[in-house]
Structures are given as C-alpha cells and as structure tokens.
Amino acid sequence: MGTVTLGVSIAVPEPYGSFLQKRREGFGDPHAHGIPTHVTLLPPTEVEVSSLPAIERHLAEVAAAGRPFRMRLSGTGTFRPLSPVVYVNVVEGSAACAWLQKRVRDASGPVARELQFPYHPHVTVAHGIAEEAMDRAFAELADYEAEWTIEGFALYEQGEDGIWRLERDFPFGTDGVTDNATGGMTDGVTPAVPRQEGTGIRSSWTGSPGCP
Fold first, then answer.
1. What does each C-alpha distance from 51 to 56, 106, 111 come to in angstroms?
2. Cβ count near 46 (within 10 Å)
C-alpha cells in the first residue's frame, strides 16, 4: 500500500497563524507557503498507509487524556549555529506540549520514535535561509506577542508537492483551562494536561532544531 509522511502539531490559530506565515514568506523562506504555522508534537515521520487507522486511534486516545491549556508566544529565539532556525518562543504552555509529544511518540504506540534533539516547543519563522534574512526575522519579531487557549491538536500529511495538509483534528476533553503561570486551574475543575497525573508535568526539555 505504500507509505506517507505524517506530522502531528498544534495549529497557531487566526489571526496569528496567517500573520506569521506571511512574515516567514517575507523573510524569503521558500517552504513557508506549504507549512501551516504550528508547534510540532511529532516531526515528519514516514509510516505505512496500512498503519493509519491505528495511528488515528492512538492520537484520539492521547487527546482524550488531555485538557485545554493556555499558550502564549513572546519574542524570538534561534537554534543557530546548531541549526539554521529562527523561531517565536513558547513562554506559556510548553510543559503541556512536552507532555503531549511524549505520549504521541510513546514506545508502545504506532508512531514510536526517538528525537534527534531534546524537545523544545517553538514556532518556526525562518529556516535554512540567508543569515541576513535570519537576522531580520530574529529582530523584526522580537516584540511579537500572542496568546490563546489550545483545545486540541491535529494530524497532517505531506503531499508529493511538499505541502502539508490537515487530515484530522483531535480535540481535548473540555473540563476547564489550566493556569500555566501558577500551576493552578481555572473554573474550579480538573487539570488540563495530563488528566490522570494532576499537574506533574516535567518541563526540563531544551532545543529541537530539527522541526520545520
């Protein structure tokens, strides 16, 4: 049946997503038009087509164990010189992202894999372009701010034309929103992520230069 290349990510919603995608195009990144603005949970992974039903069941189970959480972006960072990437920082919600990506890649699941670099959630705004353009991206988005509530993640497939397209959304449970700044909860309900582990989310992850 062949193979396909999949990725799992948290979409950056409007108006932020299209704004950052257009800025990425403006910096001269030739791949920007084919990559929706996102935070990676599973980097590009080649899988057998026959495994897709099991992968979708697995992702639905991961999502069902989660809860909505806040995400805040602020300022820029870079993986240079290790990797030619400039990104917008995830300054709130990173621990929840780390929890999710670890379970998406769980060794017992259908997309088990190791990462080339330790996980570090971010939003890429320039990748593999001229150093001068990378410097522009780093400087011009240094004051960028955005904030919203994450309500799920999505499965994407890369086409033969190189463009990533949405295949399916996976919404979280909806028992409230975690206050990431304090580790507490809003609405007087259960924790956001993870459902079964309270607020015991490890947040000591650093750097993931391989994500687009």
1. 9, 15, 9
2. 9
Integer CA distances (angstroms), 6 to 56, 111, 158, 198, in order: 11, 10, 6, 30
Q: What is the spatial distance between Cα 62 and Cα 83, in angstroms, rounded to a whole number?
A: 30
CB contact at 8 A, 183 and 95: no
Name the stretches of the chain with pLDDT < 50: 175-207, 210
3-state secondary structure at position 123: strand
Beta bridge partners of 158: 5, 164
pLDDT at 90: 98
What pLDDT is stored for residue 116 in this prediction? Answer: 86
Residue 128 DSSP label: S
3-state secondary structure of 148: strand
pLDDT at 174: 52
Token pair 């991206």 is at which residue? 137
- Pairing mode, strands 164-171 and 178-179: unpaired
Task: Read off the pTM.
Answer: 0.82
Q: Is the peptide bond before 194 cis (omega within 30 degrees of 0)?
A: yes
Beta-bridge mates of residue 92: 72
**Of 164, 107, 138, nearest to 24 (Cα)?**
138
